[in-house]
Amino acid sequence: MVMKLRVLMVEDSEDDALMVRRELKKGGFDLIVERVETDKDMRKALQNQKWDVIISDYVLPSFSGLDALKVLQKTDLDLPFIIVSGKIGEETAVEMMKAGAHDYIMKNNLSRLNPAIKRELEEVKVRLERQKIKEDLIESYSELEKKSAQLEKANIKLKGEIIKREKAEKQAVEVKEHLQNVINSASEIIISIDKNNRITTWNKTAELITGYKHKEVLNRSINKLSMFDNSQNVIDIVKTVYQEKKFGYDDLVLITKNNVKKIIRVIGSVIKGKYKQDIGILFVGTDITKDIEIHGKLLLGNSYLIPDKNNKVAVDLFIDLTRSEHQGLFFTRSNPVMIKSIIPPKFKIQVILLSKEKSEDYKNISDLDSLIHEIKEFSIKNNNAVILLDGIHYLLTIFSFEKFIEALYQINDLMAKNKSILLMRFDASLVDNNKMAIIENELQLLPSQKLEGLIIEDSVYNMLKFIHEQNQNNALVSFKKIMVKFKIAYSTAAKRLQILEIKGLIFTKRQGKLRTVYISEKGKTLLSKRQTA
Questions:
Q1: What is this structure's pTM?
Q2: Residue 531 confidence class, pLDDT cut points 50, 70, 90
Q3: What is d(CA 427, CA 311) in angstroms, rounded to the nearest whole number?
Q4: b/e map of 470-496 (b: 16 or more CB within 10 Å)?
Q5: How far from chain centre, in Å, is Cα 472?
Q6: Binning pLDDT at 50, 70 and 90, where does residue 498 land?
Q7: Which of 72, 242, 324, 367 is least surrounded, with the fewest CB atoms within 10 Å of its CB?
Q8: Buried b (16+ CB within 10 A) or exposed e, 243-271
Q9: Distance (Å, rounded) from C-alpha 124 to C-alpha 121?
Q10: Residue 217: burial class (beta carbons within 10 Å; 0-12, 13-18, 19+)
């Protein structure tokens, strides 16, 4: 289906503008494009017409991408602002992102442009929906205060009119109950804080995520509550919202009752009283812990160690990364039949066998120089490259540990230079503690591998195993399916799933009216280690 896209292009080169147009048409967009080169022309274009996205070069003769971003920020328009440049450096790109740009794309890599635009358009849609929720909540708060004021007036002036007073009280209770139902029905976490930094709202989602009931936190000061990882940071954010009135996203770290950190991405707004005075702050947020656990902490340019006897967890993580726009290279000792069973055909993953024997299906190498060469070529040619190095035992059998470590140093340097990710699966029993320490000092440990002795009961473990099996078969896992499988009541299923979610072993998503369950990377790691009570 063709999608109409209104593009305001800040660009001085007609050739570059045409190149960007061609790329956008590849994405299936029906384009309306206006090109501007000056501050004045951009302001005029923003006033005269509605736009869906702004695409800006960074360097222009009498204008710049940063100037263009500032022009947009002085308006009330919520538009994706994407830098497309051939000259921008990494430090400049980071500064532009900090200044408020949504993405930056090099002109020699325009294949990222269409996915970036579609992603940012979806983000705009989400922000508008959340803004509507906030406005409804703030309106409800104002309505509640209005009703309360009416009740107060009735108590003072109409003491003898008991019937009218009871009716006003009933209305106030209904509004309050309606407001509480709205707040508790929201899938987002909703917290309100008064002028004295005390919690005044703590909805059901907040209870579910943290394990703390509203009665345990209501009317208590932020700096006296242990669930805030950094209470001073929360107070500073509250001050910023009061000062700026309009506030972007920020991340709060909450500590659950089970001492598990949850990262909540919130957007804040000021709650106004009857006379337009500031009476508190409202935060609406989403739990992004799982997203950060799976991908956010795997940084480009880093190398990670996966200490495991089998490659199941490593391969699962590798495939997950290739699903999210990473280009994959897999070194392995597995035979071709096994490789085809674990690598889905639809994924364009390059496989190289660690073997002296040639294969009809895959390329093979058997020396460290060839290993380094293949990794170097792949990481240079592919953006967001992720490389899984398996079968280390083969290399250690042929080469000395010292030679292998020298090669690993070179590979690690290549990862940093070419902004790629290395996953190395290694059986720690192959070497002594001193050699293992050298490897651990060179590579980082995956966040999802840090289980720290986590133990769960057999019944909960079996449920986690069933969820994983269903996920592998691309089958949806609903509460009802779990109840039928284990022949348990809804309350029992919900309690066991809550245990798994609190421990970070699963996460849930809503698909239409159905709430489905998925295993996290931490859950997969636990299954591979088979730690049960």
A1: 0.37
A2: very low
A3: 10
A4: bbeeeeebebebbbeeeebeeeebeeb
A5: 22
A6: confident
A7: 324
A8: eeeebeebebebbbeeebebbbbbbbbbb
A9: 5
A10: buried
